[in-house]
């Protein structure tokens, strides 16, 4: 499940904390006024930077432009309203700061690939962005701004090998040793094409002391000798992108489950947690990137 246990959080350096406070002030203002037009002038006043400085600092700290971030959040909130209310599309558009249904529908299709009505008819939370929040993880030189997204995933069958682990919150976690051993066992079978996306699946539905862990790939092919299959049901997930050595994943999940989830609009569910890795993933690299998918439902 996770390759290291959490350590006590350490405070960022004062200069990093002061620098981030300015960005957080801008983010707080954006989050509180998403139903209003948000000009760069107004946002710059919240930050004490000029418009030019704000745009460049915001991009540096978040990886997004101000306009892109605001638009994605507005549209994500609008998509949630389409699924959870019976409001007309026009009313949803106006409630989320768009001047007309036409401009809203155009922007919505650019982000989600379909019209607002088609999204509502599909009835699935796909591609929803949540607000950027501070994630202070122990090994970071400074606090990070992290954005979790909400996705629905259809049912799939995983082919692979399984074992049991003691996970992140166990009194005696052993996943640092057991998870790599399970992946080694999968490779040694030689039965799967590992040029596809790799999937780790943690079954927390029983919530026992030892958790079933699967390493494999999603496929519709017949089960070859030496492997087993697992049916994973359709589910909504909160998705966290972890960047850095895999040995730090436990710290990221500690923040994700103990800090982000209780303050979000979602609640955790027992079920199947997913680890998603690109083919050839090397967890020793400092820029290694993977995703952790946590089953959730709206509160």
**CATH superfamily caption of the largest domain:** Regulatory factor, effector binding domain
> Helix coverage percent of residues?
25-40%
* Secondary structural class: alpha+beta
Q: Low-confidence parts lasting 5 or more residues at pLDDT below 50?
A: 1-18
CA(first)-CA(last) distance = 25 Å
Tell me the name of the CATH class of the largest domain: Alpha Beta
Shape: globular
Mean of the pLDDT scores?
87
Report the total helices. 9
Q: What is the H/E order? A: HHHHHHHEEEEEHEEEEHEEE
Number of strands: 12
Instruction: Tell me the count of domains.
Output: 2
Explain what you see.
- The protein has 299 residues and is of the alpha+beta class.
- The protein folds into two domains: 1-124, Orthogonal Bundle (Arc Repressor Mutant, subunit A), CATH 1.10.10; 149-298, Regulatory factor, effector binding domain (Multidrug-efflux Transporter 1 Regulator Bmrr, Chain A, Alpha-Beta Barrel).
- It has helices at residues 14-32, 40-47, 51-62, 66-84, 89-95, 101-112, 116-122, 175-189, 249-263; strands at 128-129, 133-135, 144-146, 149-153, 156-165, 198-203, 211-218, 228-232, 235-243, 266-268, 272-277, 289-298.
- The strands form two sheets. Strands 1, 4, 5, 6, 7, 8, 9, 10, 11 and 12 form a ten-stranded antiparallel β-sheet that branches. A two-stranded antiparallel sheet has the order 2-3.
- Strand 2 (133-135) and strand 3 (144-146) form a beta hairpin.
- The longest helix is centred in the first third of the chain and has 19 residues, at 14-32.
């Amino acid at each position: 499940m996770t390759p290291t246990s959490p350590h006590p959080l350490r405070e960022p350096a004062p200069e990093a904390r002061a620098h981030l406070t300015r960005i957080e002030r801008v983010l707080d203002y954006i989050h509180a006024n998403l139903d209003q037009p948000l000009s760069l002038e107004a946002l710059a006043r919240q930050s004490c930077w000029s418009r030019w400085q704000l745009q460049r600092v915001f991009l540096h700290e978040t990886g997004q432009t101000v306009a892109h971030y605001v638009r994605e959040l507005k549209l994500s909130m609008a998509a949630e309203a389409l699924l959870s209310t019976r409001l007309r599309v026009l009313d949803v558009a106006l409630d989320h700061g768009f001047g007309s249904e036409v401009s809203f529908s155009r922007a919505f299709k650019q982000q989600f690939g379909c019209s607002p009505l088609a999204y509502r008819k599909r009835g699935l939370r796909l591609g929803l962005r949540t607000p950027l929040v501070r994630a202070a993880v122990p090994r970071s030189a400074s606090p990070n701004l992290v954005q979790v997204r909400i996705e629905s995933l259809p049912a799939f069958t995983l082919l692979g090998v399984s074992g049991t682990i003691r996970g992140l919150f166990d009194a005696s976690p052993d996943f640092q040793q057991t998870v790599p051993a399970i992946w080694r066992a999968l490779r040694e079978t030689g039965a799967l094409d590992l040029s596809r996306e790799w999937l780790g699946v943690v079954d927390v539905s029983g919530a026992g002391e030892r958790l079933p862990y699967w390493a494999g790939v999603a496929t519709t092919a017949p089960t070859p000798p030496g492997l087993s299959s697992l049916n994973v049901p359709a589910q909504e997930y909160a998705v966290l992108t972890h960047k850095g050595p895999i040995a730090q994943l436990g710290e990221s999940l500690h923040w994700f489950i103990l800090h982000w989830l209780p303050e979000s609009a979602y609640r955790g569910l027992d079920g199947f947690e997913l680890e998603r890795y690109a083919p050839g993933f090397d967890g020793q690299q400092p820029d290694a990137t993977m995703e952790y998918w946590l089953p959730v439902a709206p509160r």
